Amino acid sequence: MERLRALREKTEATSYAEVIKNSLRLYEALIKEAESGNQVCIKDRKGKETSYRMIF
Fold first, then answer.
1. What pTM, to 2 d.p., does this model score?
2. Burial status of residue 13 (CB atoms within 10 A of its CB: 0-12, 13-18, 19 or more)
3. pLDDT above 80 for 50
4. H or E element, residue 23
């Protein structure tokens, strides 16, 4: 519950349902990319990239 509350505050969501809906949308997109053989990369402010591979 604490994690939901923190995410709700950080994202200024109007409800916990909105937080969960947005979380599921992102999770589904990540899984779709992984199923296509793609990796998810995060690029920091300095341009350094970190790749993440979804395992499920």
1. 0.77
2. middle
3. yes
4. helix 16-35
